[in-house]
Amino acid sequence: MASTSDGRRKGKRKSTSQDMDKDVVKKKKPVYSGFKQPTLIEQLKYILAEYPDGGQILKELIQNAEDAGARTMGILLDERRLNRTDETSPAQYKKFFQAPALCVHNDAEFTEQDWQGITMLYNSVKKSDKLKVGRFGLGFKSVFHLTDNPCIISGERMLLMDPLKPAGFETVIMDIGDLDEIEGFATNDLIQALNGKFGFNQETLSSGYFRGTLFWFPLREIPTPLSDNLYTVDKVMNLFRAFQQDSSSILLFLKSLSEVTLFKDQSQPPERKVYAKVKIAASGVKCLAQRATFADNIRNMTPESADIFSCLEIPIECFFDGNRSTNATWLVVNYVVSKSASNELKILMNDKSIGLSPYVGVAAPMTTNTQFNGHIFCFLPLPKEGSKLTGLPFHVNGFFALSSNRHHLKWETEEDKDQQQYDKNVHWNHLMASEVLPRAYGLMYNAAVSRSNTSGNSEEDVKRVYGLVPDLDNVNENWKSLAANGIKVMQTEYTVFANDVGEWNMCQKCVFGTAGTFDSEEIKQSIRICLKRIGKSYVELDDITLNTLRTVFSTQVVCLSPTLIAKFLRESNAYKCLANDTKMDVFVYITADEQFDLLQGLELLSLANDKWVSFEKDGHTKYITSAEVIEIFPDFKDRFVMATLSSKSAKACQSIIDEAAKSTFPSQISEKRNDGYAKRKRTFTSRVVCLPIPKRDSKGLTGFAINYTRHVKRRLKLPDSPEMPINVREVHIIYAALQMELRVITLKKR
Q: How would residue 709 be classed by pLDDT, with cut points 50, 70 and 90?
């Protein structure tokens, strides 16, 4: 240590805080700021761009009523001109009660959550409720296509919306009972607009309470910063007409709503005219109770719960223009998968970022046999755009992953497929289609079969069931898994109707055909009788249904053919007891394809002695000739084919002979006769022979014919007359053949 001059040791000086501050370089603090948020007007414009103007507006209002638990709903077009004459009026609330306007009512009341949710954007209080469809808080905002100033009244409160107001002042809530005390509020304007609308009147103001929920949307008649889309009475009527097109199916997959009515209100005092009405008919009381029970069961489900489903017959009544009505009964199956879900699906079910329920449904009309084109629902029908058609003969419904505007299901694009991109929402939709919906389809098909049984299985009933089978060639690619897997679910079920036994059966126990399987109704009936006798069930299907079943159950769907019939007959002798005409028709059917070897060993050859014998490779020759010729040989009727063949049977026999005549064999039989006559070469097949008549100008045959003619005449004591009732040449040939006991020699082709 160093020392000073006076001898004291020199030490280090302690640093002070000031010295340290000098050494530290001061750094600048970052400047924080928030994201620049779009204004309310800008956000609403984005929403209106996502939710195109049109019929979907009414569907969103219906969906909101359904989510609120409403049972009835009314939509009224008030065509009056009201509170619009003085646009400069200082009364700041008058604009909320103008007309023309659209008035909407449902019989459910707003909850505290509903009052909060109605003012949310891109968020929703419904997210945690597995029975509610709204997820984005956007659907109701589509009403800004037609109005700037919505008014909502429910229970004890009224909410007014004005997005053109400064930020923080866009909405105002008032108690109905205090309206007289609100500064600047003229209750007369409110009463003028709403008096008599769905039960709203002066008494409502006095009591401070309105039962249900009422929406009032004054139509926009002048452009505003929010929108330049002007709404007229005619445009609202376009919305009504769009609703009318979907009216018969609008209630099918809903859990609460059972009636929606559209009104026109044209006069003062108002007189309502029903434009359209759809409701579940009075006969559907049972299905209403079933819907409510099913909804309760869903609320009580846990991850360990068994799957639940409901199968409903819903009678729908539709009224148009006050008098025209249509009625239809729909078969609707809803299904929620739980414990039985695949591991892949369970992972997505527990993913809160998806927040969807594995809840699906299918529906088909049961009162029509016309071709039906199914559509996609997310509890209400999605917009009918070209790619949305499924190609299925029934509607499909489910908690699908949708685009934010609820117009489209999320499917992978071609680019996603090429890059093998994974989107959990897209995967959810695929699993809904391939795993959950097929279960609902199987239940619907079984229910349709049961319904047909109850109705007596008429031709129309059976055809209606087959109408549920999709045409695989026509199904949209995204829905092919549903079509195929839905049919596979039916593998062990009674899927097809066997007319001959009058009951439904499994595919693997039946034999199938179409309208084109047989050449005639007579042959068809005989084959069906034959199949029934040997214990086989015949099912006739249309080409589309049969093609689908063959595609899915390739080895289990066996189609009728001559080969198959021949196989069945060899396995069972029961066919030998069939009536003669029936057996002859079976013979005709088997020979239709000219596969004559199929006849081998089958007792299908009818003889003149009224007996049936089998077609064999070796044995006595059988002859085809007229009844008159057969009578000349009474002791040899077992050698003649029955003379009274039908035209089709005779044609079948002739086809056998023609086939034999044109066949080539490794060797042919040539036999010399004692009289020097060379027997002509012949080919025989299956013991049936039609001996040809010798030609007069053939060398060496004329004398042969004359000699044998005289011999046969003497033997049979026939008159020596040039005009004989029978063909003598044919007789003498048969006689000679019988005398010589010619055998049939069957030779195989090369």
A: very low
What is the distance of C-alpha 654 from the center of its chain?
A: 49
Taking alpha carbons only, the member of 317, 305, 311 closest to residue 248 is 317
Question: Closest by alpha carbon to 398, among 344, 336, 347?
Answer: 336
Backbone phi, psi, residue 12, to 5°: -75, 140
Kindly give the pairing relationship between strand 259-265 and strand 272-280.
Answer: antiparallel
Phi, psi of 62 (to 5 degrees): -65, -40
The residues, ordered by sequence, that sit 6+ positions from 472 with a Cβ below 8 Å of its Cβ are: 480, 483, 484, 547, 548, 551, 552
Q: Is cis: bond before 725, omega within 30 of 0?
A: no
Pairing type for strands 72-82 and 259-265 reads parallel
Residue 135 has what pLDDT? 46
Please list, residue by residue across 725-740, b when 16 or more beta carbons sit within 10 angstroms of its beta carbon and e when fewer do.
eeebbbbbbbbbbbee
- Residue 2: its pLDDT value, please? 46
What's the token pair of residue 424?
Answer: 């959990």
Contact in structure between 97 and 189 (CB atoms under 8 Å): yes
Q: How far apart are CA 68 and CA 257, in angstroms?
A: 10
Burial of 103 (0-12, 13-18, 19+ CB in 10 A): buried
Find where tokens 């499994």 sit: 506
HEC states along 144-205? Answer: HHCCCCCEEEEECEEEEECCCCCCCCCEEEEEHHHHHHCCCCCHHHHHHHHCCECCECHHHH
Q: Which residues of 545-583 are buried (b: 16+ CB within 10 A; e: fewer)?
A: bbbbbbebbeeebbebbbeebbebbeeeeebeebeeebb
Per-residue pLDDT reduced to its tens digit, 611-633 = 998 887 666 677 777 777 777 77
> Computed from CA positions of residues 248, 253, 258, 260, in that sequence, does the dihedral angle turn out positive or negative?
negative
Whole-Å CA distances, 639 to 166, 172, 690? 111, 107, 12
